[in-house]
Amino acid sequence: MKAIRIHAHGGADQLRYEDVEEPRIASPNDVIVKLQAAALNHIDIWVRMGATGMQIPMPHILGADGAGVVAEVGNGVKSVRTGDKVCLYSFTGCGECEFCLSDRDFMCIRVRSLGERLDGTYAEYVRVAAENCFPFPSYMTFDEGAAFPLVFLTLWRMLVTNARLQPGESLLIIGIGGGVASAALQVAKQMGARIIVTSGNDEKLERARALGADHGINHRRRNFAEEVRNLTDNRGVDVVLDSVAGEVWQKSLASLAHGGRLVTCGATAGGEPNDDLKRMISRELKIYGSTLGSREDFRQLLSFLEVSKIRPILDRKFPLREAAAAQQRMEEARQFGKILLQTSK
Ligand SMILES: [Zn+2]
């Protein structure tokens, strides 16, 4: 089969389009999926550069997200059959620790995930464990089925499992435009939340309004914490989603109502923000760190998608052989939505 592999860490020039042996069933629980599409994530670039600090076997196939059709199953597999359309949950733990035994493989210290310690989805075929194959959303295309898992799983755990956003509550999303932020907007809108977004880019604020944001604040022109107070009769919002941190962290805290929750899955502007402890205490604020998600989060998400019929936002699709150009587009932040690779011929 054709696949994109790296033989060493480095720049996009390390991505090699080459002939690779097809994955085979190695244990009774294995499933071979013929991929129709793969989607890019920033983790692909960090793995390529060697920035995760993780030892990975070389040569290595990148890619955490993909969707396709089951081509072959091991003799112990009952949950899926040859010909099933599937989307993929990418984490496999040790199967023995307290996290794995409670379905939270992604917290396992020995976790292996597609494109990191396991060969990934920049390929025509991928091998996964049966319990990582999930029913394909009935209304989605293969491109959409490849695009949504990692981003939507991350935001579902942030907003629903951790921050417990409720219908009718207000949500402030810092820095709309990124994959997780845009998906959070789509999901929160369907849940019946009132949504305020910030960006330094008016075009992104316009797009956010089209996706359902009630208010957009350009944080280059205005202090968003003051603006949030104005928009909420000086109350503040129930939940802030801030994966920017750095300088904006204090303003995010200042935007919260009494008992408000701040949830974060990243710190693009700096990982050591100044906490306003006095405010956190007097207002009983809560802060949730959040990362990835469990199979149970994924199951809940799939049910929600089937009802809400949300479609992930797609940017552009590249042939598999042009994976380097696709990654460059992501590194230069030129995309709006998910970048895809056509893995099938
Ligand atoms: Zn484990």
Written overview of the protein:
With 345 residues, the chain is of the alpha/beta class. It is built from eleven helices and 18 strands. The protein has helices spanning 42-49, 98-101, 142-147, 149-162, 179-190, 202-210, 224-231, 249-254, 277-282, 295-308, 323-331; strands spanning 2-6, 16-19, 30-39, 60-61, 65-73, 85-88, 91-92, 112-113, 125-129, 133-135, 170-173, 194-199, 215-218, 237-241, 256-264, 286-289, 314-319, 338-342. The strands form four sheets. Strands 3, 5, 6, 9, 10, 17 and 18 form a seven-stranded mixed beta sheet that branches. Strands 13-12-11-14-15-16 form a six-stranded parallel beta sheet, with helices on both faces. α4 (149-162) crosses α5 (179-190). The chain starts with a strand and ends with a strand. The mean pLDDT is 94. The structure holds zinc ion. The site of zinc ion (ZN) has 8 residues, from α2.
Strand portion, in percent?
25-35%
By DSSP, the count of extended strands is 18
What separation lies between the terminal Cα atoms? Answer: 10 Å
SSE order in H/E notation? Answer: EEEHEEEEHEEEHHEHEHEHEHEHEHEHE
What overall form do the CA principal axes indicate? globular
Radius of gyration: 20 Å
- Biggest β-sheet description: 7 strands, mixed
Ligand roster: zinc ion
Helix coverage percent: 25-40%
Q: Mean pLDDT, rounded to whole units? A: 94
Q: Give me the secondary-structure category.
A: alpha/beta
Counting copies of identical and different chains, the oligomeric state is single chain
| Uncertain regions spanning at least 5 consecutive residues | none
Total DSSP helices: 11
